[in-house]
Design brief:
This protein has 177 residues and is of the alpha+beta class. It has one domain: Nucleoside Triphosphate Pyrophosphohydrolase. The protein is built from 3 helices and 11 strands. The strands form 2 sheets. Strands 4, 5, 6, 7, 8, 9, 10 and 11 form an 8-stranded mixed sheet that branches. The protein has a 3-stranded antiparallel sheet with strand order 1-2-3, with no helix packed on it. A hairpin with a 2-residue loop joins strand 4 and strand 5. The radius of gyration is 17 Å and the shape is elongated. The N and C termini lie far apart (40 Å).
Amino acid sequence: MRHCYDCGQPSAEANGIPTCAQHGPLWKLVQQGPTANVIVERGDLILLAKRGLEPWYGHWCIPGGFVDYGEHPEDAARRELMEEAGVRVRLTGFLGIYVAQYQRPGAMDWIQNTVYVGATDDEPVINDHEMLDVGWFDPNDLPDPMVPAHLVRLADWSAGRVWRWTDQTSAGSFEPG
């Protein structure tokens, strides 16, 4: 990226990130990247996290976050669950890929969310400044407020629209045909 989106001035790089002297890091390219989320199941309960950052500060969500450059979405999903909820997650299924709007300062971007289903034996612990709270919830009695787009994903999950994996498969090893 050679110029700032906001002012058009030439940008330099700081730690590999295009940066404008006036507007700071040009995060648009990073934040338009894909995300990975996991609906973590434990019996009849699911793990949700309460956001501590915008967008959707104070809203409950399916834990997850941005996929790092070169990272597989499955690896990002596992990493994000450890970062946000302190749990090691086993991915057990694939729910879908969703397109959603993502509000960033001064603009609205589109992002692609890969949503997995998983399980853990760990108890959640908040170990990241991004979340205010984490906990297990009955999917028929969700906390309020919820991130609206995540309600659609949870409705699909509740309707059984999950591709359940065997021990030998995952999205990374699936070969159609």
